Amino acid sequence: MAELTKTRRCLQNGQIITLGGDTAGQDKLPLQAFNEKGERNYYSLSADSVLPGPKPNQSYQFLFWNINGSIIKTPMIVNQPVPEYNFTATAWYYLVGEGQSQPHITTYAFSADEDKVLESTPIEKVIPDNDQVWPNKGSVVYTSSSSVKIDPLDKKGISDMRIKGKGNIHVIYGFLFKSWELLWNSGCSINGSILEGQQNAQGLAIAVYQQDVLGTIRIPILRGREFKWDIVAANKAVQVALDRIIQTRNPAISAIKLNHIKAMNDIQLEELKTRLPRLEAIEKDIPNIIK
Question: How far is CA 84 from CA 13, 69, 81, in A?
């Protein structure tokens, strides 16, 4: 017996969409993979194209299904084989009706594996790069002054990393860019990994990321005591070193030693000294972080 978890969510905030008192916005449905004759069963799904929004002038518009990591941009899904394991199907919507603005392309970083919007912008660079086109280096690119080319972040940064392991060997999991998906499109196109927009283009796109192993870390041992990762991770010097791993995936720097962990300024070093007294005794052995 497989169980299907069917959910509807809002792309802007990731929250489950509820509709008055009819449902909580999430249902769990038991499904049989095979019938009594041993034949494969099939299922179908349907999502409303438009749902009422929280205010009279607002509505939720259907964007795509995410079914176990697969993006499907049609509200009706028919004759899909029932798997022999539990699986999820999320209908993602966009809340509209909050006013008009100048022509722009809005982007989101989306993890299909985890079925969620990732933090921060998915944009690495924009051509042309100026405040009129790409203000605040955010997730919105304006097209009223010129056509644009949007280059995605190939690898998500520190805030979206996962670190797992035993002892002093930890594996860094991150998110690698897979593809753009255009959800609304007026004057936009995809050229390889580049999202392009004509002048006055309007669009909504997600940069789809998939989990991957970015590297490994050897956490230093101080006189038999493990260097506490939850403390060190907050230090900017360590984040810089980890960022190098993400940018290069170079095994030569995958083992971070104490001589790579130099506080970026005296305040940070004093903080490390306070939290890890043993570090003070070996301060003389910690050179500047490798350039």
Answer: 32, 16, 9
Last residue of a domain, one of 99, 125, 143: 99
- Map residue 217 onto helix, strand or coil: strand
- Residue 61: beta bridge partners? 50, 94
8-27 residue pLDDT tens: 999 999 999 987 655 567 88
The pTM of this model reads 0.72
Domain final position from 81, 99, 117: 99
For residue 242 the two structure tokens come to 């980890």
Q: Are residues 74 and 112 in the same domain?
A: no
What is the per-residue pLDDT across 76-87, written as a single tens digit (0 to 9) for each?
988 889 988 899
Is residue 143 within 8 A of residue 105, CB to CB? The reply is yes
Query: In this structure, are residues 237 and 289 in contact, taking their beta carbons and an 8 Å threshold?
Result: yes
Is 290 within a domain?
no
* Total residue count of the chain as it appears in this document: 291
Domain of 75? 1-99
Intra-chain end-to-end CA distance of the chain, in Å: 56
Do 205 and 110 reside in the same domain of the chain? yes
Query: Which segments within 12-161 are labelled E, that is strand?
Result: 26-31, 42-46, 50-52, 59-67, 70-72, 76-81, 87-96, 104-111, 116-117, 123-127, 140-142, 148-152
Relative to beta strand 194-218, strand 104-111 is parallel
